[in-house]
Amino acid sequence: MVDLRRKSALEDFVKIRKRLCDFMTSLQAKVLTPLCGGCYYSKIKLLELPGEPPHICSETWRNDLAWEVGLTEKEIRNIARMLKQGDDVPLRCGTCSTPLQYGEDDFYVDSEFFEDYFDIPAKKPSKRTKKEIARLYEHKCYGCGKKLSKIDITNDHIVARVHGGENSPLNLQVLCKNCNNHIKGPRKVDTINVHLTFLFRPPPSDSYEGLTW
Ligand SMILES: [Zn+2]
Ligand SMILES: [Zn+2]
After folding, report:
1. pTM of the model
2. Of 150 and 26, which is predicted with more confidence?
3. Ligand lying nearest the CA atom of residue 146
4. Are 210 and 45 in contact (CB under 8 A)?
5. Is 206 helix (H, G, I), strand (E, B) or coil?
6. Ligand sitting nearest the alpha carbon of 108
């Protein structure tokens, strides 16, 4: 499932950034996943995670898609059907897929930065990635909304490199030269921190049938 999500990770990231941020705001996202006790404790040894994590409160997992992690596509479709019928959806460990019972099993939350979770490298984006970003921003300046031709597009580092911004596709947006050089210029951007207990996509409807989503 992570692989399915990975394919659309950048697209999903831009989608949620458009919902929450303007061109002067950077999005820092963490993905939360449920872990069974066994996987959590073996992970502690591996990574020496600090302290005790918070338990997942079952309510926060309602209607979100975090439990999709570790499931096959067929299982996800089953879940979609159950959701549609208003049935209770089982929660599963994000690592070993063991079903977790609300209120019966101990389970924990694992929190990872979006880029780590989806393996998005912090390196100079390729030409193809830049093209993809231009497409995701609909070839429009994210500052003033102006439609841009190929030569007018600038790929702006949302958090400027001089302010410690990463060289990563998640830190790029499309701006016109005016918004980039004169309006944004060297100003510092705000940062919004979000925890994603869902993976962005609305519950699938009939229109998704037969599609990979
Ligand atoms: Zn597990
Ligand atoms: Zn502009």
Report:
1. 0.74
2. 26
3. 2
4. no
5. helix
6. 1
What is the maximum span of the chain, computed from C-alpha positions, in angstroms?
59
Question: Could you give the CA distance from residue 12 to residue 162 in angstroms, rounded to a whole number?
Answer: 27
Mean pLDDT for the stretch of residues 158-174: 94
Which of 211, 12, 212 shows the shortest CA–CA distance to 118?
12
Q: Which residue has the higher pLDDT, 45 or 112?
A: 112
CA dihedral sign, ordered 198, 63, 92, 59:
positive
Mean pLDDT, the chain, integer = 77
- The closest ligand to the CA of 173 turns out to be 2
Ligand nearest to the CA of 41: 1
Q: How far is the CA of 78 from the centre of ligand 1 (A)?
A: 21
User: 29 CA distance to ligand 1 centroid (A)?
Assistant: 23
Q: Per 3-state DSSP, what percentage of the chain is helix, strand, and coil (rounded to 5)?
A: 40, 20, 45
